[in-house]
Amino acid sequence: MSVLFAILLFSLLIFVHELGHFVAAKLSGVQVNEFSMFMGPAIWKKQVGETLYSIRCIPIGGYCAMEGEDEESDNPRSFDKAAWWKRLIILAAGAAMNFLIGVLLMVIVSLPVKQTVIPVISSFENYATINGENGLQPGDRILKVDGEKLYNYSDLSLILSLNPGDIHDLVVERGGARVELTNFLLEKHEVSTEDGTTVRRYGMNFTLYTPDFGDKLVMAWNQSLDTVRMVRLSLQMLLTGKVGLKDMSGPVGIVSEMSNVAAASDSWVSALLNMLYFGGFIAINLAVMNLLPIPALDGGRIVCLLITVLVEAVTRKKINPKYEGYLHSAGMILLLGLMAVIMCKDVIFLFKR
After folding, report:
1. Catalytic residue annotation
2. Chain centroid to CA 99: how far?
3. Where would I find the H helices in 133-267?
4. Of 42, 66, 331, 344, which is most buried, counting CB atoms within 10 Å of its CB?
């Protein structure tokens, strides 16, 4: 069931993405030659007006083929003849739709929440040494850690793990005022748990809160922003060498992880909500990644569009779109190669387990 759900999820995200391009193109007066779900030979197609609607047999990808998208066209309603700002909207519309569906899924996941922990300190354990007049106090809401905003309680451990030391910069809200604790020593202490194991803890307890409907909407929005930041942090770690290819996952790895989460859930409702959270997380990830300035992605197309508009405005000469097409074709080949490598790695990992 989780595999089926994952396939339906990826299909939905692809459909929504291409639908964004399609709707924006139609509203902008750009001719759409074909709107296709999936790739390969068509198993169903229907011509409606100027647009061919089709479903193809390979359940990967999809496309919204616009007149004059990758080559020059004499058609006055072609993509390359549209105003540059219309082309910009059309290119960004796919990612925008993915982001919106991601936020919607986060709202659905947040609505059943009855209680949640918020980053407001309720009390301290006797062994804690981080509290006091010059330290943290009960009622403090932790706003930032090391310059990173806390969108929810779980961010605290994540952000602290990015800086393995004990010295951190904190910003808290205390009595309606912002208080900065610079170079603050967040000292951990070894504590024995009920099962006899030893763990290291700060000794601060946080507030359990019952959210109302408005709070749940804010929770969903904050979780969406937090997901955007996760993409940025992941890219930073990738570029700095903190993570590598072995830490990346493709569709196979994602489906495997979704199956594990669903299997570990204590009820079908919990499993469904966990899967929907994964869906929202993936949708927002796709939205952000698709806007990166990489050839073949919408972000790369947007950068090329802006450069082309600037160059043509200065030189008064039109740039042949075929050169941009070559660039995006090369980028697509490299991206497909990377996806193939990651998929092989995920498959090998599954068999090793």
Report:
1. 18
2. 8
3. 155-162, 213-239, 251-264
4. 66
